Automatic annotation (TrEMBL):
It comes from Streptomyces bangladeshensis. InterPro entries: Surf1/Shy1, Surf1/Surf4. This is SURF1-like protein. The keyword Magnesium does not apply. Keywords: Cell membrane, Membrane, Transmembrane, Transmembrane helix. Belongs to the SURF1 family. It holds the Pfam family SURF1. It is a multi-pass membrane protein. The chain crosses the membrane at residues 12-33, 218-238. CDD domains: SURF1. It is found in: Cell membrane; Membrane.
Length: 266
């Protein structure tokens, strides 16, 4: 029996064995790493959801003390004072299963910058005539702090060519060409909808949801583990074929050297 396995000491099989011994741990490592990425996203999603839901339990803090927006400050309640200026509509936003639009008003603060404030949501097609005018004079607003949106993420539209007075995304990059003011790289959604509008709930920060990227990590996990299993399967298959060949060769049923074409005579 030992003679049957002597081929394992040949250079060809040394190469195969080294490849298998390196490939399997590598595949397991990569699969485990992708799985940890997925688990991290699940944990981030749970933490962000809990933070957004518990935001009303924390006392509101001044806006400037909570900037820049990150995973630890997103959803936290902040206050800001100033005067309302220009107003925009954000179309195609869903709330409680219904399509509608946000009413976005810029608050010019004492710092000389404008803060986008979502005063509420209204059902139907975005129409300036439906949007209540903002309160006049000095106001103090309280709401959940949110990071600038990225078109294409979390249902944020990436469409262009909107009518004047509308924006697809609430972000400084999208608003910079629509308003004359310097902008905060953040926005807030009011705790209570203004002028009879429905309040818009705070959302979890980008990159923390169970989105396509999270399930891509889970898919890659499966692919790496399947590939590790495939390497083991192919090694045993090659081993079995080699053993069968060696046995047949010992019985004189096949040539001594496999995979060698007969040399034509003459």
């Amino acid at each position: 029996m030992e003679g049957v396995y002597r081929f394992l000491l040949t250079p060809r099989w040394w190469g195969i064995n080294v490849f298998v011994l390196l490939a399997i741990p590598f595949c397991v490592f990569m699969g485990s790493w992708q799985l940890s990425r997925f688990e991290d996203r699940v944990d981030d999603h749970r933490t962000a959801t809990e933070q957004a839901a518990s935001g009303h339990e924390h006392a509101a803090r001044p806006l400037d003390s909570m900037l820049p927006v990150d995973k630890s400050t997103s959803g936290r309640r902040v206050t800001a004072s100033g005067r309302y200026a220009g107003q925009l509509l954000v179309p195609d936003r869903e709330l409680d299963g219904r399509r509608g639009f946000y009413v976005l008003t810029l608050l010019r603060t004492d710092a000389g910058k404008a803060l986008p404030v979502v005063r509420g949501w209204l059902p139907g097609t975005a129409d300036p005539a439906k949007a209540p005018a903002p309160p006049a004079g000095e106001v103090t607003v309280t709401g959940a702090l949110q990071a600038s949106e990225t078109p294409g993420d979390n249902g944020v539209s990436a469409q262009g060519g909107l009518p004047a007075g509308q924006t697809a995304a609430i972000s400084s990059a999208s608003l910079v060409n629509l308003v004359p003011d310097r902008l905060y790289d953040a926005w807030i959604t009011l705790d209570k909808g203004d002028s009879g509008m429905k309040a818009v709930p705070a959302s979890a920060p980008g990159g923390t949801g169970l989105d396509l990227k999270a399930f891509q990590n889970l898919g890659y996990t499966g692919e790496w583990f399947v590939f590790a299993g495939f390497v083991v399967f192919m090694w045993f298959r090659l081993l079995r074929r080699e053993i069968e060949f060696q046995r047949d060769a010992a019985l004189g049923l096949v040539p001594e050297e496999p995979d060698r074409e007969p040399v034509p005579s003459g």
